[in-house]
Protein 1
Amino acid sequence: MDDAFNPKPERSGATRRSALGLILGAPLMASCASMPQFSGAPNSGLEQAPAPSGPPQQPSAVGSGQVKVGLLLPLSASGNAGVAAQSMRNSAELALAEFQNPNIQLLVKDDAGSAQGAQQGAQQAIDEGAEIILGPLFGLSVPATAGVARARGIPVIAFSTDSSVAGRGVYLLSFLPESDVNRIVDYSAGTGKRSFAALLPENAYGNVVEVAFKQAAARKGGRVVAFEKYSNDPTQMQTAARNVAQALPTADALLLADDGDMLVNVAQTLTASGANLKRLQLLGTGLWDNPRVSADPNLQGGFYAAPDPSGFRGFANRYKAKFGAEPVRTATLAYDAVALVAALARTQGAQRFSGSAVGGVGKGGGHGRRTSLSSASRRSASCTSAASSAGAAPYSRAVTSAALQPDRAATADTRSGGSTRRGSPRAPPRRDRTPARNDSAACPRAPLRR
């Protein structure tokens, strides 16, 4: 297994730690690395499926192995979703190319970003012999896919960020906002912050962040001194910002959870309302990992949970060499998913995608069940901990921040630490999702990537 996955370019060495338990890799990325992001759906809007931009793409197959794997992506969707889907398809192809002699054939289906399209694509893939389904990308499409798959006993590994859609036979490999919030609040509390404020978007993403934020603050013995949500209406945003700004003198940390231009606009509105953002600790989620955010002077010095640039840079270089373009960050999910099923197909025999094999990755096959999102409970300094030298070769050279979760109970269990354990299939060592500081001048300073 160590030598089965051997891309020709460099490995990132000791900084690469990816957990394949209920969490697959929680990498760290300093904001000074300007990498392509997929900062629209599904993360910022949390599963707002787009309209199709054209007719569905024709089904295709990648690879010639005997083990068939369905891959559902919104290839004909409009906007960022379609761009991300094509990048994810390319990454899946790259994963097959870099896994030595994979016995896998990918059956690629365009679900157009809709539940109906996902249901049809899943049915087609299963009728063609798919033993497992990778995708869909959007949470609204997962139940339709799961219904078809469960009827045939086929597991699903979806890329949704909506943890509520996980269930029996349905696993998630995705960037979860709950993980970001838990990690960054724990980090802030670890630096002595106890009074928290938050200004969040009035949408599904903001709702998930709100619950995680209030729970995390309470768990750390903190208090929430100000909390507001805003819509896209400028007047309503100004009112929310003014209310938070008035309470900020009693807070020592402020959470802002939006991306790109909207986050910049929120920070400007707060400043115009009299908030002094320099006197308190600014906190963010992975959506901050955006060049527009890192360039904004109002947000300089803020901390957010984000992936490690080293693993992604190596992956991006290989991707660009093969496809002539930069990948979006979401593409690494498809890469890891394909690498995972290729490894299971090689090591698990006829039981390769059984509940014990796929679920066992999170329930003891790799790390114990209680490793789900467990990086939230670890100190930021552990980003260069001994886990990085545990010796197990990671499945993925992309090293994504992802959680592979079979049920909601596992999703909620975020506080346990736990040491690296090996099992079958062989799991890579865990890595923490450690805050990066939004300060490019300080990026080289490890281990906090400040």
Note: Confidence is low (pLDDT under 50) at residues 7-46, 362-434, 439-450.
Protein 2
Amino acid sequence: MRADNAQDLQDEVTSAVVNIVARATAFSSTAIQTLEVGTGSTAFVPRFIPGSPTDALWDGHLFRFDLYNEFVAGHDLDGNGNLDGVFLVDKDGDIITEDDKGAFHKQKNNAPAVPVWDAGVQLGAMPAANRNIYTALWDSTNSKWKTIAWPTWDGTGSPPADFASVRDLLGIDGTNPDACAQIKSSMATPIPAAYLSSTSTFDRDHCAKAIIDYVRGYNILNELTTTTSVTVNRARMLGDIFHSSPVVIDPPVDQFICNLGLHAQCVSTLYQYDTNQPVARPDGVTRAISTPSAPRPSRRTRSTGRTTRPGSAWCSWARTTA
């Protein structure tokens, strides 16, 4: 950056800020699903696209690409005469590279890379009403956590008990500025009847319903330009993955692999992730995404002697915290 006068300095700073905002990035690491880097391995790459400060959520993505090992495949993919390359490849099998703005392109022609899948797109294709969401409530009677389905309420009569329990934990009482007033001001006008009391007021219960339904994925904050309906998906179903990384949970592995420390599936902290690791959750949800692998050759397990076929009876999960 060079500035010979005040205007130059202003222009350079503005240019730097605009450049940062334009980048698609993630302060997190890529998860690789494999014991060894070889053909058929997968990589889960988190990215987000910074948006406006007024956006309820920034645009989040979790891409799946494949890893291609030339030596294992016995094929010179990049045509340099050697078999020593390991590349990230897209759904079409093309080598991909990342530009300085965090976008992925095909190396051969700079066309946009085609991920095997993008969790942001997959979530957007699923109606919010069909999502399986769970939360936990503290059971003071039995001194333990109780898992419940994310509550629903049609807005009439008295809310069910689980809804009321979640409502009381939302922190909407005594907030400054008033969270419910901000939500109300962002909703479509007139506010749908399901979010108003019998006296046509946006009261505490219906404010909680708006928050709970937004987490489920409904268009509560009127983010879409094509409709004001609150029963369709909101604009961005996957929040920005910020300071949090996907964790791949594979099928059980052979005990000798664990003894040698060759696989992350053996790490005990994997099963204590929620209690031991603080994580960023911009849209309030920790997601488990089923990523079943293609069937691989069967093997006999050392502990039981039985034949198993990894990828057929178990699913892998790319677990994100955004």
Note: The CA atoms of residues 56 and 249 lie 30 Å apart.
